[in-house]
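Job type: complex structure
Entries:
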Amino acid sequence: DAKTTQPPSMDCAEGRAANLPCNHSTISGNEYVYWYRQIHSQGPQYIIHGLKNNETNEMASLIITEDRKSSTLILPHATLRDTAVYYCIVREGQGGKLIFGQGTELSVKP
Amino acid sequence: DADVTQTPRNRITKTGKRIMLECSQTKGHDRMYWYRQDPGLGLRLIYYSFDVKDINKGEISDGYSVSRQAQAKFSLSLESAIPNQTALYFCATSDPLAGFSYNEQFFGPGTRLTVL
């Protein structure tokens, strides 16, 4: 079973920041938080991952709470092309499998 | 050219038929995976392989088999297809040498399979 809980859907205005929450209250010390997204029936695409510290790359930022029980993916300036299902996944750093939950369907509106 | 390709992209078949879905990759990755996705649900892992001689069952392997013919090829077979195997199937690859924590998986475009 997926070890994360996400809201089923969210809306965001184009140009605004999209903040997608994820709860992973049973995360263990050696497990990383990964985010993927899937644009309408295409293969999922990796976005970002982290262990303890906040992370940022060209696509997004990942904020992990100090107790690591929750995290937030931030798309700083959402565009219409960011409309997708976003999956938050907890997995072991080495050899761990990706267990996808149902994700959050983000709709970016003009 | 795509790094991870899947054939066929769409397939309609009948109950009881044997079906093979093929995945090829040019990324040079050792690890390959097969997932299925049902409408409105996330992906579920069927089988995975960490190298040519390694095959492992995932969450939902019953009714499926796989073959890792080479580093670049990983095939999924349905020996006797049934309607509840109608789904979108994805192949993925990853590189274990990319770093301890960094295990990004690269997905193919998917195969839409319908079993009548």
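Summary: The longest strand of chain A covers residues 84-92. The interface with chain B takes residues 2, 32, 36, 41-46, 49, 51, 87, 91, 93-103 of chain A (CB under 8 Å).
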